[in-house]
Amino acid sequence: MLGRILKYFKMYPLLMIVNLFALMLFLLMAAIVLDKNVSFAWDERIRSMINTIRTSQLDSWVEFFTDLNGAAGVASFSLIILSILIYHKWFRDIQFYIISVIGASIVFVLIKYSVQRIRPSLEIVDIGGYSFPSAHTTVATATSLAVYFIFVKKVKYETLQILLAFICLVWPLMIAASRVYLDVHWLSDVVAGLLLGLFWVTLLEIVYPHADTRVNEES
Question: Fewer CB in 10 Å around end: N or C, the chain?
């Protein structure tokens, strides 16, 4: 086991550092959430700050935006991505994408119902379930990272690679912000969702090679 980890460190040093950092920080946050005597000071501070800028019109816009990363939105987006991958016959990438998204969904559900953290409020959006980690944020991060890892090796121009990286970075951050704004998650919930999605997909990128080398050969 140790030998395999060292092998991955030699092959993917940066990815391994990011992966282990995300895992350790997530586990630390989960331990704090499970300890009822400890809390994150920033959770209440951020919540109080957002309450000062909240308006009914902004509520509607943010609710519409966050729904783009709901079950229907993710399914529609995934159908588009999978159609592109099927058209090009990138079958390893198809497997990578499916495992990334569905795997992240399974992991967050297992953790959410193990931790059972209560949501901060249900005043704006009436939803059920538990709070930690944020499902929307976890899936948004997993989806974005999967798309990045799949297409960054297929995009020929550096400008497009930078644009892809920017979009895949900003999207989960915006979804995370929308969940905190709507008061259905604490800030720590969405940070944990970002870390969990980051850990899961970087782990897959390390242990599950998927790039279609024919693309590089053609370009």
Answer: N
b vs e for 80-101, b when ≥16 Cβ sit within 10 Å of the residue's Cβ?
Answer: ebeeebeeeebeebbebbebbb
Six-digit token string for 143: 């989806």
Q: What is the DSSP letter of 130?
A: -
Domains: count for the chain = 1
How high is the pLDDT of residue 199? 96
CA distance 42 to 28: 16
> How many Å apart are CA 61 and CA 53, to the nearest integer?
14
As to burial, measured by CB atoms within 10 angstroms (0-12 exposed, 13-18 middle, 19+ buried), residue 142 is buried
C-alpha 179: how far from chain center: 13
pLDDT of residue 117: 86
In 3D space, the residue among 201, 206, 186, 205 whose CA is nearest the CA of residue 104 turns out to be 201
- Low-confidence stretches of the chain (pLDDT beneath 70): 1-12, 37-38, 122-126, 210-219
* CA dihedral for 207, 208, 214, 219, sign (positive or negative): negative
Q: What is the pLDDT of residue 218?
A: 39
